Amino acid sequence: MSDATLGGSFTFPGTALTVRRLGYGAMQLAGPGVWGPPKDPEGAVAILREVVAAGVNHIDTSDFYGPHVTNQIIRKALHPYPKDLVIVTKLGGRRPPDKSWRPAISREELTAAVYDNLRNLGLDVLDVVNYRSMGAAGPEERSIAPQVTILAELQRKGLIRHIGLSNVTAAQVAEAQGITRVVCVQNYYNVAHRHDDALIDGLAKQGIAYVPFFPLGGFTRLQSSTLTAVAGGLGVPPVQVALAWLLHRSANVLLIPGTSSIAHLRENLAAGKITLTKEIVKKLDGIAAPSAKN
Questions:
Q1: Which element (helix H / strand E) includes 148?
Q2: Is cis: bond before 80, omega within 30 of 0?
Q3: Does the N-terminal peptide bond of residue 146 adopt cis geometry, omega within 30 degrees of 0?
Q4: Which residues contact 265 (CB under 8 A, 6 or more apart)?
Q5: Which residues are known to be catalytic?
Q6: Contact between residue 181 and residue 163 where contact means Cβ atoms under 8 Å apart
Q7: 54: closest CA among 23, 31, 15, 98?
Q8: Rg of the Cα trace of the chain?
Q9: According to the model, what pLDDT value does residue 136 have?
Q10: Euclidean distance between the first and final Cα of the chain, in Å?
Q11: Contact indicator for 54, 48 with CB cutoff of 8 Å
Q12: Which of 17, 121, 192, 293 qualifies as a FRET site for 198, CA 20 to 30 Å off?
């Protein structure tokens, strides 16, 4: 697929990294609950190869998916990597044996996570590393300066090219920018959950990418009669409309929908071909409840 059919392209600010706006999130390549190996390892490899064959050059991952499993599958499927492929990973969490999600934010943990990502991906340097603030139920206002400072130090050592943030507030973005250049922000956002509207607009003015996670609702798919009706009128699946709305939302929005199915992958990528009229956008804008926009 071309840039046009994958939503156009975007260059991370202050970098030479240009990606197509429709990317791929690799979390679902691990086993159930994002734990252990997948039931079909060769199928996971096939999906990643289909991702690249389709023209996608932005893959989102983390070494705490699995843990380690997802990155190892990416390496098996795609290494040596295409020259234009941008792999974005994240630090700040760990998966203990009870399969929970826990913060891992000490100097030792963050440094070890960088080396884990490098080793399991088979890289000498990581393109983009997001610091993931592990809030219990979304972003929590607290200083992230110590963790971002550590990543900036690892960046100066040549282990990380660029730094981003995940699950953060506007104040935390500003705090991090006082330490290093921030090239992207990855938060929970979709057509029904729009708390980050002001943040997206602010980042767009700075040329910073906004990458919504759970663009289709996460572990529970988006359910909306309006979304279903619009999709029916266009003759496409509702997931494609939800993704097309995000592409329409702002030119700095990059998408990383995940799937463990080649059929669903192709369905997701087809969202880049959909054109939404002003009338349709207005209808879709009405899906989010007022409380979901504040």
A1: helix 145-156
A2: yes
A3: no
A4: 24, 47, 50, 51, 54, 259
A5: 65
A6: yes
A7: 23
A8: 18
A9: 72
A10: 36
A11: no
A12: 17
Q: How far apart are CA 251 and CA 155, in angstroms?
A: 27
d(CA 233, CA 138): 34
What is d(CA 248, CA 277) in angstroms, rounded to the nearest whole number? 10
User: Cα 47 to the chain's mean position, in Å?
Assistant: 17
Q: Any residues with CB less than 8 A from the CB of 229 and at least 6 apart, and which?
A: none
Nearest to 159 by CA among 120, 103, 111: 111
Q: Residue 211 in contact with residue 185, Cβ under 8 Å?
A: yes
As given in the structure block, the two tokens for residue 109 are: 């943990």
- 227-282 pLDDT, tens per residue? 999 999 999 999 999 999 999 999 999 999 999 999 999 999 999 999 999 999 99
Q: Write down the pLDDT at residue 219.
A: 59
pLDDT digits (tens, 9 = 90+) for 154-167: 999 999 999 999 99
Residue found under tokens 């939800």? 242
Determine the Cα–Cα distance for residues 180 and 192; give it in Å rounded to an integer.
32
